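Work Package 3 (structural annotation) set out to generate three-dimensional models for the target panel prioritized at the project kickoff. During this period the team completed the workflow that converts sequence records into discrete structure tokens, so that structures can be stored uniformly alongside our sequence database. As a representative example, we reproduce one entry of 410 residues exactly as it appears in the project archive.
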Amino acid sequence: MTQYTSDLLRLLDERGYIHQMTDAESLDALAAKEVVPGYVGFDATASSLHVGNLVSIMLLRRLQQAGHKPIVLMGGGTTRIGDPTGKDEVRKMLSDDKIESNIASIRTAFERFLTFGDGPTDAIMVNNHDWLGQLGYIEMLQKVGTHFTVNRMLSFDSVKLRLEREQPMTFLEFNYMILQGYDFRHLSQDMGVRLQMGGSDQWGNIVNGVELSRRMDGTDVFGLTTPLITKADGTKMGKSVSGAVWLNEDMLPAYDYWQFWRNCDDRDVGKFLRLFTDLPLDEIARLEALEGGAINDAKVILANEATKLCRGEDAAKAAEATAAQTFAGGGLGDDLPTLEVGADGIRLNAACTALGFTGSNGEAKRKVAEGAVRLDDAVMDDPGFLIEVPAGTSIKLSVGKKKHGILKAI
């Protein structure tokens, strides 16, 4: 690893966050002598961010831990356009009210990871609609458009790959990189921001902002990206078999969030502990060296620590207790997903689908044929079996080794 003088870059380097930087030596020197305000941008396309956004959130947490000022930039303006990076389809337009509602909901997750306030290293949240919404079109063309060439814009992967796949790209989306570059320039001028961070797919957009600040104002600002975070099986972070792993409780129960980390691949344990927990590095080294069944102890610690950061210590403890009851004792943990069943009962395949364990009744039928579906640990062979739950009782429904739910009478 490179020998850095600043606590910030040493911390980021040791934990595996650094992929690219625009001027590592100058950024290192700056971070060693003064508080560096740095930001990451997030668009508000849903009411919650997901695990795929978590490495960027942790970047801001590390920035604050190293004595610098994190700025959460919510894309109230850019959400109205859509980032074309990695997309083949035009983003659906959201209403102003929906965007504002999403931002308010997303903030609740950030409040778990960052300390907000008015101090020099306290986090703040800003909305780029506050300045992009006031920028006239002619003014934008004159002030900013002259610093971008179409030749250069066509060379960025976000545009080039879309065109190579012959997928339509609207002029609206084509402007996204200009507005993101302007965000950096505005934050630099208005708030003294010196650093933009993000995933590796944002490198081109970040470099645009660095260059725009230099050309318009002669200001030196910096960019830093993280490597693409994938799981050992090659899939992207943020997705599970049953869908997105949302950060907000109302989008995903704490038990399911805990299980996502508990079920990670053995090969991912060390990397995830470094990136997504605050455990000391020597403790992480000990845990990732565990072999055989002992690696499961490290996974429980990973699940507890990651859940504690996102959902709180009580949620982590409850999820662990539920898992222990379910897997070790064969009991019914309080945090398991629950389906209320009426007096008429419910068919086995429909119950599997209603709990989200299968994507359709057809998939449930296949799972039953594989012997993967159990009621109170008894293997079922009839997908049309009518489950009736007597009043005051409950039944455990399991699909495979990792999906468990409770059926209870209304």
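The mean pLDDT is 88.
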